[in-house]
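User: Here's a structure from my thesis project, written as structure tokens. My advisor, Dr. K., wants to see whether a designed sequence matches the one we expressed. Can you design one independently, without my sequence as a hint?
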């Protein structure tokens, strides 16, 4: 178990280093931030002085190594656009993104597992067929189009929910939340549905497929032959074994929710780190872009690491295979 954890942690660190290198390399081709920071009347001396101040006159390996050293300490430099510490800017925007991702994940997992079980148990019913047909919308349509359609329906036509912004928030000192205000809750509904709909349909279809496969197994027939109630067979035996492979895919989808939040935040003008990243691209704010991609990478790799460890703990076959390997 310990060797497996060490190996997975080592792989995660390697992935983060590669992602950081690729991201930092890409930013060198985005443009020169000095052009956006200085006015039209700049001189060559002004350009050289600012490039020296920002460290852009140093070789790329030196810049990247300093970036890694500072990033480990939580220092991502100063924003070229706002002139403030990047860590401070991200800490202001991060609660909005994490809150949106958490609600979207709750929506995706709860409905995905619930509807997946329902459509598997009653696979020949009209309700199951209707749910599977409607679920094609979540799989087929792109995220931004779903968001636009929801805005048109619930904001323009029905005038029920706001079309942009986060609403009123409560400042808890270290966290800002819209879950404690009415306008904040209303503003969260459409973005959360938009962000979680695709993941919900994938989880639902996976749960349904795995559940149908498990219900065909011999031990399920044996459980029914023993006279167990249908509810006990479906939920105590079938669902428990169904969730083992679902955990891995669900973990990947949770990482995708954080990564895809950038599209949803742009559509709904949600004041999170995704929208911050889009604005940073427009102004070639390299420290903000690098910090955002590193943050998303850490979250994504961290979630995958946790899922791998949970999968290892739940599935005894992995422990047996690992033991044989040693």
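Assistant: Designed independently from the structure alone:
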């Amino acid at each position: 178990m310990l060797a497996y954890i060490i190996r997975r942690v080592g792989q995660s660190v390697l992935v983060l280093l590669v992602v950081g290198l690729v991201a930092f390399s890409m930013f060198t081709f985005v443009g020169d931030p000095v052009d956006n920071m200085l006015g039209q009347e700049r001189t060559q001396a002004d350009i050289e002085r600012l490039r020296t101040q920002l460290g852009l006159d140093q070789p790329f390996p030196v810049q990247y190594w300093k970036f890694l050293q500072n990033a480990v300490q939580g220092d991502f430099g100063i924003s070229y656009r706002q002139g403030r510490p990047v860590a401070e800017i991200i800490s202001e925007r991060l609660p909005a993104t994490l809150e949106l991702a958490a609600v979207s994940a709750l929506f995706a997992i709860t409905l995905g597992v619930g509807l997946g079980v329902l459509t598997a148990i009653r696979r020949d019913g009209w309700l199951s067929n209707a749910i599977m047909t409607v679920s094609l919308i979540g799989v087929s349509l792109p995220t931004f189009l779903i968001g636009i359609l929801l805005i048109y329906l619930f904001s323009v036509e029905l005038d029920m929910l706001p079309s942009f912004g986060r609403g009123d928030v409560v400042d808890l000192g270290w966290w800002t939340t819209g879950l404690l205000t009415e306008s904040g809750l209303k503003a969260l509904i459409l973005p959360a549905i938009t962000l979680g709909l695709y993941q919900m349909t994938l989880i639902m279809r996976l749960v349904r497929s795995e559940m149908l496969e498990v219900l065909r197994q011999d031990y399920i027939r044996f459980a029914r032959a023993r006279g167990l109630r249908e509810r006990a067979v479906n939920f105590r035996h079938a669902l428990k074994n169904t969730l083992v492979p679902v955990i891995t895919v669900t973990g990947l989808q949770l990482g995708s929710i954080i990564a895809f939040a950038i599209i949803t935040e742009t559509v709904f003008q949600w004041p999170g780190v995704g929208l911050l990243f889009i604005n940073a691209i427009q102004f070639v704010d390299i420290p903000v872009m690098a910090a955002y991609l590193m943050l998303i990478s850490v979250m994504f790799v961290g979630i995958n690491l946790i899922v791998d460890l949970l999968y290892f703990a739940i599935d005894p076959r992995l422990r047996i295979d690992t033991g044989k390997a040693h």
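When you compare it with your expressed construct, this may help: The radius of gyration is 24 Å.
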